[in-house]
Write a structure and sequence with these properties.
Layout (H helix, E strand, L loop, with lengths): L1 H15 L5 H21 L5 H22 L9 H10 L4 H17 L2 H5 L2 H6 L18 H20 L10 H23 L4 H5 L4 H8 L4 E5 L9 H5 L6 H6 L14 H5 L5 E5 L26
Antiparallel strand pairs: 1-2
Bound molecules: iron/sulfur cluster (2 copies).
The site of one iron/sulfur cluster has 9 residues, from helix 7 and helix 10.
Length: 306
Amino acid sequence: MLALALAVLALSCGLWAGGAPLWTLYAAIGLAAAIGLALYFTQRNFDQPLRRRMVLLLLGSSLFGAAALRDPVYALFQIEGFFFDLLGGVMLAAVIHYLIAKIIGPLLFGRIWCGWACWTALVLDQLPYKRSRGRLPGRWGLLRYAHFLASFALVAALWYGFAYRPGVAGTTALAWFLGGNALYLALGVGLALLLKDNRAFCKYACPITVPLKLGAGFALLKVKGDATKCCTRRVCENVCPMDIRIAGYIARGERVASSECILCQACISVCPEGALALSFGLDGPSPSLLRGCAAPPQPAPKDYIA
Ligand code: SF4
Ligand code: SF4
């Protein structure tokens, strides 16, 4: 309840800041991040996944408010806004956001956006299916590329076919943003309920993962396992929301290089041997070792609420 109240406060700050100087939006984000991290590091009587969701709720909602109100007429932070700006040859807010958070950022911090800041995941992570049953067989992950291309095709058709530009002809960036996010949420919640997996949208359909995954394989920050401590009982894999076969990477003597890792750190928090930790290093991408739904997870460790 406290996290929810603070999230509402953060969003209110963003709403209030709509008519205020830009710095107030950044102040609202900073305030939300500071409160979230303070809760994360002090409220250790709560499980780590719950504390992470508190940060996600606060940070994601403040970022959502800021993105919606940064420039409600022209600044579109949906991926379509990125495409519109690229076609227009301009370096506006959407391009800068995508460069920092979705293209250059992942080279440093992987998909930390997905674990800690995404405003879509903020909602998805509150749904009841927090333990994944594993990946669907087949190539369902290709849907994300189809979604990405469909978004680009829509923008190109509007741009070249109808000379459409956001902010003109009565439509605003804010309308795109709210409409687009409503569609993502409808799809995300629908997939989560259908597949009984909160992160199904992230695994199969989110177009943002296309740029994110490009850099994430090369990320400096990754989870690293110590093979001398690993008990091989795979407790970590049973709580991984992205179905990553963490023990497989440990056995190969590699860091968790899967571009599916969202750096949620649930695996680190649950490892009974303390065999996992975040680490900085230089290595390239590695094949994604993922758990299929044919191999259901073991029961979670006692007292662990993922
Ligand atoms: S995969 Fe997409 S929806 Fe999921 S957390 Fe990442 S950006 Fe958000
Ligand atoms: S490997 Fe660990 S940090 Fe990465 S998604 Fe899975 S549980 Fe989270």
